[in-house]
Every structure is written in C-alpha cells, then in structure tokens.
Amino acid sequence: MAGRINDDDVRAVRDAVPIDAVVSEYLQLRGAGGGNLKGLCPFHDEKSPSFQVSPSKGLYYCFGCQEGGDTVDFVMKIDHLSFAETIERLASQAGITLRYEEGGYTPGRQQGERTRLVEAHKAAAQFYVEQLDGTEAEIGRKFLAERGFDQAAAQHFGVGYSPAGWDHLVRFLRGRGFTDQELILSGLAQESRRNPIDRFRGRLMWPIRDITGEVVGFGARKLRDDDNGPKYLNTPETPLYKKSHVLYGIDLAKKDIAKTSRAVVVEGYTDVMACHLAGVTTAIATCGTSFGGDHIKILRRLLMDNASAEVVFTFDGDAAGQKAALRAFEDDQKFAAETYIAITPGGMDPCELRLAEGDGAVKALVDSRTQLFEFAIRQIIARHNLDTAVGRAAALEEAAPVVAGIKNSSIQHESAVHLAGLLGILDTQFVVRRVSQLARWARERGRGQGGDQRGRGDQRGRPGGPGGDGGPRGQRGGPEGQPAPAAPRGPALNLRSPAHRVERELLKLALQRPELVSPAFDAYGVDEFTAPPYAAVRRTIEDAGGATGADGDYLARVRDTAPDDTVRAMVTELAVEPLHIRREADEAYAGVQLVAVRLAAVNQRVTEVRGALQRLGQQADPDHLAAVQNELWVLQQYGQSLRDRGAAAL
C-alpha cells in the first residue's frame, strides 16, 4: 500500500515552488496590472488572454472557462497527474525530500505511475549519453561529426547511443529498481518470448522532452545497413508520450520564442540542432507526425496570439516539401501570428545548409522567409495555364479563397490587386470584389449565418455556380460549420449569368433545331462555351459528327457519343427544354444566339490579349509585341463588325 505524503512536506512543496514559475513553463505570461500576470488559457481555446496568475496569492484563474486553483491544481490538470505524482514532481524540482506515512519512505514503490515513467526516461537518457563515449558508438559519433556536430553539441542536446545488444538498457534499469511492467509501459522496452528486450538497439538517440524539460520519449536514428527497421524509430504512444502533443526542442526554444515572438518549424532533430547552433534558437520540430492542431496550441500559448508574431516553416524545395507547406497553410487561420515559409535552396535541409555554407546561411534562410499565403497563391497559379481564359478563371477561383483568408484586411486588399496582376486580369476591381465576397461569406459562416448552401448547384445546370449569384466553390465545409455535401458529378452552373443563358440557348437550338444554326455552329470552338458542362456538350456534338450532318438518328448519336452519364443527362435535358421564345424559332432568333456567344468569346479574347500586353511590358521583343498588338486590332474590328452586322458577320 502506497504511503501518504506527510502534510508538512506538502505545505513545504506548495510554498517552495512559485506558481508563476510553474505556469510560465507552459505559456507566456505578461503583466496584467495589480501584480497579476495574464496569458492564453491552456485549458480552453481563446483569442485574447483571460487566464490570470497571482504570484502573491499563489493562485491562477481563467475568467473564460472558470478553471482555477493553486500550483498543485495547475500541474495536476495540465499534465493529468494524480495529487501524489504532482507533489513528487514539484518536490523533485524544489529539492525537497518527501516523507511518507504508514511505513515511511520506500523509493520506487510509493511514487505515482507517471513519476516512475519520467524517472525511467531520465535514467535511460543518462544511460544513452554515457554509451555514446564507448567504442561501439564510434559509428554514431562519426554520423554526428559528418553533420557538423561536435561533442559539445551532442551534450547540449543530450544525444546518446543505444547499444546493439538485446537487453543492455533493461538490465540497467532493473538495477535501478524499475519493474519489467514499467519498462514496457514506458516504451523503453518491448515484450519478447522470455523477458523484455530493449526497444532501441544500435541507434543514435535523441531525448524528446516536453515543454517543462522532462524526457518523455526518444527518437532513434538507424546507423547500420543490417538494421532492418525504419530510418527513424520513435517511442510509441505511452502515458507519457503523445507525438501530436510534443515538439522536439520546445524546452530549449520556449524562452526565445516568447521573447522574440517567432517560432521556426523545421523537419528533423538534426535540423533543430543545426538551427540552434547557428543562432536560430527558436527552432522546433515535430516527432514523427505532421504539424497539427495540438502543436499549434503549444505555440499559441508561447506567442500570446500576438498579431506581429511569426511562425516560419522551413521545407525542402521539392514536391514533398511544397505539399507540406500547403498543408501547413491549411492551419494558418488558427494562428493570430503571421505564417511564413522559408524554402531551403537546392533541396538542402537546414542541417545540410549549415554544413555547406555555414551558420550565416541558416540565419539568412529564415530571414528570407516569404509569407505562407503568397507561397500558396503562387503554387496554385503555377498549376494553371494563364494564356487561356479557362486557365485564368480556374486559377482565380482556386486562389481567391486563399487571399480572402488573409487576416489583415489591408494586406488582403493589396494581395487581391497583386493576384489580378499575376493572373493578367485587367479588371482589378473584379478580382478585389470577388475576394471581398468570399471573405464576407467566410465571416458570415463564422457567425453561424448563411443557412443556404450557396454555390453548390447540381450536375444538371441549376443555379449556383461560379461567377454569378452562387457562392464560393471549392470551399471546405458548408454553412455553420456543417460538412460539405457530396460533390456534384458535374460543375455547377449559374443560369443568372447572361453568358451561361445564351450558351444554353444556343446548345438547345443545336440539338432541337440544328438546321437553324448550321453550318455556323460547327465552326464554333469548344472554348467559346465558358461553362464546363456546356463545353462538354459542344464537344460531344462535334464528336458525333456536328449539327450540319443532323439526320433522324442525330440526337441518339449525340447521346451515345457522350463520355459519361453526366454529359448524357445534360444532352437529354437540353434536347427537351423549351426555347426561350414564345413564337416559333427562326433563323433570325438563331442568329442572335450565334452572335451573342461569338461576341462574348471575342470580347473575352480581347481581354486576354490586353492582359498579355500588360505582362509583356515595354521591354518585350518588338516583333512579338507588334504581333500581339495586331491581333488585338483584328479582334476589335471583328467585334465591331458583329455588333454592326449581326449574323452576317459570322
């Protein structure tokens, strides 16, 4: 039976450990007036600090979630410890030897489970450090040296070595009084047929510490070719170690993160070492998992949600690194801090960069950061062909929500103008309005408004598509935080759009009265139909032989030629939907639709060519510039002819 801690010792522990010193291990505290301190509450999410600490009273209280208590209460709640475990941890920090009632003090048996596991990890870390000096660990020392880390660097970060035998650590910890059950529960050992064996064998070891500096796990790097395990092997999930809740290097970086209001997120243990040794002492890394919500909470408490704070992600310049950066951008809105990216040159990570170019290059890398939203926008734009209207429209629809998500309204506006320039869209205000519209919808969703599902439309061309009265497309989730409905099988349409209405009417004529639009219709390009579903129908008609050759099997042939059920359904719908004319359709009515679609295409091309001229600038090749200017002139003349002469100009 575990002994009860002496009451006098409990009081001594409470008095010996200042509450502000304990709390500041987990979050940044600032003056709140009246001798109190304030910070972001670690027990619930909040945007402004409502968590206050009174050092003179030894108490804390959150005015947001009503959590409060003394030092012991704080540690019990934040680290999920029992009362005894909390007193034991604080006593260890204060150097107080505890006395236990009912049989006195028996080290090892009367400590709480978590305390025992922490002690086991502490002993294991020291064991690994000592092993790094041995003959067998020469391969580990060579690994470190090749990456620019000397003995002092290894000692600073507590790097060690796990012997290649089966149970070196197990036997060592048994000698310290730890049971086999504790070793397995801690993740330091694993079960075998007879007795527990070491989990880590023949590897370079990095101790993973929580924000208070306690070792809670290890990261182990493979050194030998005959090691069939993964390159990096981390401690499994244990009562101490939750990989989504830890950041490697946070114990070393936390003070400078709070002081400088900057955190640098790198990808590995050696990258953290390289950054710290190069003077970037705010570097941290995740442990075997991607950067996520729980990691964000840790940083937010250190950065105090200061709008001028920075979180800088460093990624390799390869495809995987860019993908990781865009994934990080998904969480941008969870920070009040500005998020940045620093792309390492030539695919080098910070460790390789330091080795190749020195400490200054690592600092320069971080200082040359680019705002993450700008990187995301450029990555999106690079995926589209800006020489086509469809490509620019698609790029705008994908990039505009990113700009709309920028927290700073003035930067948002400037970025919208910048986006228009990047896309070559002359109507800057159109882009600005689109971004503002998306930002407004996002704010409304955040307030729980907007009960209708805008911009979703169905695959058959119902209202609610891009570019009109429908809402934003491609957004995550529906109104009021509801999951997004299943994606439609075809792109949504907006029947309020004049361009979409006339394209639809012309396709109905081509299917219902092909003789009225032939042969002009067959000369129309697929790209003259701006709605993707309508473009698909136009292509299907072409593939079926065109409207000019319409016969008794014409509609059946078009439907059979359709590439999928969605397009086939659209063909059927257009073939039976009444025309928007009360009297009988004739060549004059057909001519109006033909001219309207062609004129819209010409006007769009004029806009494209003007955008191309804008991008070329005055330094362009004279012949190329003259050719583009000539194309613009021809288009303008043709457009005027269509306006003056109608169908006769086709």
Task: Describe what this molecule looks like in 3D.
Mean pLDDT is 83; it is low at 104-110 and 449-491. The protein folds into 5 domains: 7-94, Zinc finger, CHC2-typedomain (DNA Primase, Chain A), CATH 3.90.580.10; 113-241, DNA primase, catalytic core, N-terminal domain (DNA primase DNAg catalytic core, N-terminal domain, Alpha-Beta Complex); 250-366, 3-Layer(aba) Sandwich (Dna Topoisomerase Vi A Subunit, Chain: A, domain 2); 383-448; 498-649, Orthogonal Bundle (DNAb Helicase, Chain A). The strands form 4 sheets. It has a 5-stranded antiparallel beta sheet. Helix 13 packs across helix 16 (372-382) and helix 20 (498-512) crosses helix 25. The termini are far apart. The protein has 650 residues and is α+β, with helices and mostly antiparallel strands. The protein is elongated and about 105 Å long. The chain is 48% helix and 10% strand.
